[in-house]
């Protein structure tokens, strides 16, 4: 019983902290972190690895509840979560192989970069959408079982959290796709040329 309650708290906490907060910070590393490109890339990779570890552990806690693995895959939230963790893991491996490993030619890395950025932002948006469906699923179950009233403070907290996550994701994605950021990411030497 204690582990069931523990998993009910840990799953959403780890998923939001890992996939939304830490992953959002990792996306913004190239924007706000001072230092060389190599340093920014290593911090980005480490933060995304930490986010992935939080996500895997968060899913593990959900699977070790009373219901087991199969019983947890009944909703849109669970299927979106499975797709999200799979894409996130593949994206992390692709980033590690293409950008951290220096064996590939620069031209190959530059061709992969737009896809890496697109899939990263898509996965981040999917993580936020998955969190939103998880919040909706949880509050619907509580309201259906009459554990929580429709116009209660708990409902307001869930709605506020959902709106905050949507706002945060908009800010992160806007910062990541702003034209200034794209020019620095795609053509780092252009910044040096404009300052001359």
Textual characterization of the structure:
InterPro entries: CYB561/CYBRD1-like (IPR043205), Cyt_b561/ferric_Rdtase_TM (IPR006593). It comes from Salix udensis. This is ascorbate ferrireductase (transmembrane). The protein is mostly helical and 196 residues long. It has one domain: Up-down Bundle (Four Helix Bundle (Hemerythrin (Met), subunit A)). The chain has seven helices and no strands. Helix 1 runs antiparallel to helix 2, helix 1 runs parallel beside helix 5 and helix 3 runs antiparallel to helix 4. The termini are far apart.
Please give a handful of descriptors for the protein shown.
196 residues, Four Helix Bundle (Hemerythrin (Met), subunit A), mainly alpha
CATH C-level = Mainly Alpha
Give the helix tally.
7
pLDDT averaged over residues: 82
- Round the Cα radius of gyration to an integer and report it: 19 Å
What is the CATH topology assignment?
Answer: Four Helix Bundle (Hemerythrin (Met), subunit A)
End-to-end Cα distance:
66 Å
* Number of distinct beta strands: 0
Write a concise synopsis of the structure shown.
The protein has helices at 2-32, 37-63, 76-100, 106-144, 153-177, 179-186, 188-195. The chain has 196 residues and is mostly helical.
Could you outline the blueprint of secondary structure elements for this entry?
Blueprint: H1 2-32, H2 37-63, H3 76-100, H4 106-144, H5 153-177, H6 179-186, H7 188-195
Helix pairs in contact: 1-2, 1-4, 1-5, 2-3, 3-4, 4-5, 6-7
């Amino acid at each position: 019983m204690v582990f069931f309650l523990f998993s009910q708290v840990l799953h959403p906490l780890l998923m939001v902290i890992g996939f939304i907060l830490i992953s959002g910070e990792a996306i913004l590393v190239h924007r706000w972190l001072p230092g060389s490109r190599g340093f920014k890339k290593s911090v980005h990779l480490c933060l995304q690895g930490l986010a992935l570890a939080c996500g895997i552990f968060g899913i593990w806690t959900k699977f070790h509840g009373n219901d087991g693995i199969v019983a947890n895959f009944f909703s849109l939230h669970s299927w979106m979560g499975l797709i999200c963790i799979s894409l996130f893991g593949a994206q992390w491996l692709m980033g590690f192989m293409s950008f951290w490993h220096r064996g590939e030619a620069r031209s190959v890395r530059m061709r992969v970069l737009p896809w890496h950025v697109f899939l990263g932002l898509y996965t981040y948006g999917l993580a936020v959408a998955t969190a939103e469906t998880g919040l909706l699923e949880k509050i619907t179950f509580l309201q259906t079982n009459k554990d929580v009233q429709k116009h209660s403070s708990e409902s307001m907290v869930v709605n506020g959290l959902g709106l905050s996550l949507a706002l945060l994701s908009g800010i992160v994605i806007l910062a990541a796709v702003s034209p200034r950021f794209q020019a620095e990411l795609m053509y780092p030497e252009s910044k040096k040329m404009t300052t001359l």
